Amino acid sequence: MSDPKTVRPPTDQERQALEAMTREAVGRVAMRAQMVLLSARGYSAPRIAEIQDIAKVTVYKWIDRFDEEGPPGLYDQDREGRPRKLGPDAEAELERVLEEPPTEEGYDASRWTAPRLTQHLERELGTEVHPDTVRRALQRLQYSWKRPRRVLSKPPGWKKRLEKIERRIEETGPETTVLFEDETELRRFPPLRRFPPLRRAWMPVGEQRPVSVPDQNGKFFLYGALDVGSGQVITEAHPKGKTCYMEAFLETVLAEISGPILLIWDRASWHISNAIQDLVEAEGRLEVLLLPSRTPEANPIEDLWRLLKNQIAANLEQSLDALEAACERFFEQLSPEEALRKTGLSAS
């Protein structure tokens, strides 16, 4: 008779955490995460016990622990009644040093790891703990182990330029519409991949369903303008970032918005081309301000691009036309109030 005991289906977030634990956690914790992943794939507890060379009761224990507590439950827990080994002072020190790289504390390293934090606590506070204790403390403090994001250094005087733009916005009267404009590239799948990523889906145990692979990648550019006063978002898809398409999008914007317009955008080549400058001068009701280089965070529409890409995920069966239509529906369903809230321009 087969053993019916298997772990509950992990969520996508839990599965990612389990896979990270198999790579990054210490031996026992990594093995427990592997047990749960095997169980989620349909392996029986006796079979897992055989693979890991452990007792069946141990497999059942960690399956039950995961069912109740998720991935954090697979870490060793302090015995009941024992005080935490890291008190408020140690936790405060962890939060303090994690704001800066280890080099600021005199270490020849570019990132904080649990063993390095353990060493630091012993050096600064005389607190001797295991790295696992530090990891659990970091989880309590709402820290996670993940990759950082790259940022470019800012150009000289960038703060003053932003302050000048802010002052100009404050000076505008109610008759002037303030627009932030930008473009984003959307592809069927990441440009450095030969094929789209394979995403998990529900299917019978033991069966791996096929999916069709497109012959080639595809992309388009989505042009967008956000009215920071009303929350209105105007978008238009074009094949690429190019002056002729920028002209077409500006004509759309000018047709939809009456009165003076203060237009703020970055220094993309199609924003500062001679043809665009001629169009701005000929129109008369357009005033253009350029954001400093390498400051995408200063353009609120960037937040809408991130939201779009998070919610409109790549799909192996999705054509480029379908992706474009999905992006159009996304902005049709995005209310002005939500657009302002998602970009941090409104707290309500």
Whole-angstrom Rg: 27 Å
Total helical segments:
13
Global geometry:
globular
Helix content range of the residues, please?
40-55%
Mean pLDDT: 88
The number of distinct β-strands equals 5
Largest sheet: 5 strands, mixed
Cα separation of the termini: 58 Å
Strand order of the largest sheet: 3-2-1-4-5
| Global structural class | alpha/beta
Low-confidence stretches: none
Strand content: 5-15%
Element order: H for helix, E for strand: HHHHHHHHEEEHEHEHHH
Question: Can you walk through the features of this model?
Answer:
With 348 residues, the protein is an alpha/beta fold. Helices cover 43% and strands 10% of the residues. The chain has 13 helices and 5 strands. The chain has helices at 12-24, 27-40, 45-52, 56-69, 88-97, 114-125, 131-140, 158-171, 243-256, 274-283, 301-311, 320-333, 336-342; strands at 177-187, 219-227, 233-238, 261-265, 286-290. The chain has a 5-stranded mixed sheet, with helices on both faces. Helix 10 links the parallel strand 4 and strand 5. Helix 1 runs antiparallel to helix 2 and helix 3 crosses helix 4. The model has no long low-confidence stretch (mean pLDDT 88).
Task: Explain briefly what this protein structure is.
The chain is an alpha/beta fold and 348 residues long. Helix content is 43%, strand content 10%. A five-stranded mixed beta sheet has the order 3-2-1-4-5, with helices on both faces.
